[in-house]
Design a protein that fits this description.
6-stranded parallel β-sheet, disordered N terminus, 509 residues, Rossmann fold, alpha/beta
């Protein structure tokens, strides 16, 4: 059984991972021409503050930053200062019109509602794109992104860094090796939203700051007044009603806690259990609290039902958000930590703490399971520092496996099973780091691990959960017709509307 499982999934996952003509022969080269791995890429960014700033920092040590765009001068100020030679813009359309000949690749790190339009404008101009998770807000946009990447022959990557994590690959390989038998349930959870959500009234209009172009920020969304009122104090990110982070909770701008964290936390289940390749039998919100007419709820529980795939049985996936602690899950051994493990605060150095291995750069981000870390939990005088409640757990007919937010510290439960345990021989190609993986692909190497052929089907099933949050009852989905067959109102949410002037050229699906 172990051999069949490993052989079956090795072939299906790695098929097409390397261009048939070898490195330097990827489809993008039809348009871009071969770019030597020693030659620097010219990067631009749409969204240069916040997460965009982090992505720019990840690319800048080895590549050129040649143009920057952000609608919020204040939010992007540090990035603009760090790259004084790069011209700056507020409107990405103007940046692309003027700088197109100087740009090879673009980082898109705007609020979610602008991802598809910005990325499509870039791909139409044959620019490689790195697009922040959750890639897009709607299923139709996900399919458009995938089709455009193929049509224009560009390298792509979704910004779900856990897909590059060593532990995510170990998780898949342990499951394929039969370590916990047939998996029939996955539970995944998050402490998000950590921004205001479930608000029921829109506050009064307030003046738009001079540093912000509110109309450009709205982009594809319908016009509405700006407001920074309505909250007793700024949120934890220093903002108010919409900005800089609270937009995630709005139907029109984000995808709630699911959109923020599922691409991370459900990454290991998606890879290990081939969720993107399965038929979804149904999606239902089984519990929600703090509902709103224009925002996602304060907390929820979702259930995804997947059909069997290959020699893997049918599967239930549960998602919980708004968690203050990890959920109690039947089948998990009592007293075991699940998801992100605790850290330890104790006097003096930790005993037997090994130095970082030569493969440390492959962990992007997070750490590989280390037995010494868990022994430290039992040390005299150890003070446990509880992590935020994020992670996932897999329930099989022969055992239990858990992993952290980004696929780190993957381990069997009870933890005693990890004593003397040797990880299965690697089957999956290891990542050099999430941004490095994208850069390699843009220079003609193998496709990045979360390229749009991988990312779009992943977010498609995840976004069905976002729709389920807004409707009662189970949704039945027909992927062949891209249609929710039992709820006409929910079906309308598969495709967005665009404000005039913000459309993009659609690609035939």
């Amino acid at each position: 059984m172990a051999f069949n499982r490993r052989h079956f999934f090795y072939g299906s996952l790695l098929a097409g991972a390397v261009p048939t003509g070898g490195f330097g022969s990827s489809p993008s080269l039809k348009f871009m021409g071969y770019k030597s791995p020693n030659e620097k890429l010219n990067f631009a960014a749409i969204g240069s503050g916040g997460q965009g700033a982090s992505n720019i920092r990840a690319a800048s040590p080895t590549e050129n930053i040649v143009a920057l765009c952000d609608v919020d001068d204040k939010r992007a100020a540090e990035t603009f200062k760090a790259f004084p030679k790069a011209p700056t813009y507020r409107d990405f359309r103007k940046m692309l019109d003027k700088e197109a000949n100087n740009i090879d690749a673009v980082i898109v790190a705007t609020p979610d509602h602008m991802h598809a339009t910005a990325a499509m404008w870039c791909m139409e101009r044959n620019k490689h794109v790195y697009v922040q998770k959750p890639l897009v807000r709607t299923v139709w946009e996900a399919r458009q992104m995938r089709a455009a990447a193929k049509k224009y022959g560009v390298a792509t990557q979704m910004g779900n860094q856990g897909y590059s994590n060593e532990g995510t690959r170990q998780c898949a390989e342990m499951i394929w090796n039969g370590e916990i038998g047939n998996v029939t349930e996955v539970h995944a959870w998050s402490d998000r939203p950590i921004w205001p959500q479930g608000i029921t009234e829109i506050p009064k209009e307030t003046p738009v700051p001079s540093t912000l172009d509110w109309d450009l920020w709205l982009g594809v969304a319908n016009a509405r007044p700006f407001s920074d009122a309505g909250l007793a104090k700024p949120d934890r990110f220093g903002g108010y009603f919409y900005l800089p982070f609270s937009w995630r909770g709005f139907f029109d701008f984000g995808a709630g806690a699911l959109g923020d964290m599922a691409c991370h936390i459900l990454g290991a289940p998606n890879m290990a259990l081939h969720l993107s390749k399965r038929k979804i039998v149904g999606v239902e919100c089984v519990k929600k609290e703090g509902t709103s007419p224009f925002q996602f709820p304060k907390s929820c529980t979702l259930r995804f039902d997947f059909a069997a795939y290959g020699n893997m049985p049918a599967l239930k996936v549960f998602w919980y958000d708004g968690m203050k602690e990890s959920p109690k899950i039947a089948g998990v051994p009592d007293g075991e930590w699940v998801g992100d493990p605790p850290s330890v605060r104790q006097a003096g150095p930790r005993p037997n703490r090994p130095t970082r291995s030569a493969t440390a750069d492959f962990r992007s981000p997070g750490r590989v399971y280390n037995a010494a870390d868990f022994e430290a939990l039992k040390a005299p005088g150890a003070e446990l520092v509880r992590p935020t409640p994020n992670g996932s757990v897999f329930l099989g007919d022969k055992g239990v496996l858990t992993t952290g937010t980004y696929g780190e510290n993957t381990r069997l439960l009870p933890i005693e099973k990890m004593k003397g345990y040797n990880m299965p021989a690697p089957l999956l190609t290891r990542s050099p780091g999430h941004m490095r993986d994208f850069i390699r692909a843009a220079k003609g190497g193998s496709p990045a691990c979360s390229n749009f052929d991988v990312a779009a089907p992943f977010v498609e099933w995840m976004l069905l959960g976002v729709i389920a949050l807004r409707h009662e009852g189970k949704l039945e989905y027909d992927p062949e017709k891209m249609r929710i067959s039992n709820n006409p109102e929910a079906n309308k949410l598969l495709k967005p509307t665009f404000r005039k002037g913000w459309e993009f050229h659609t690609v035939k699906l």
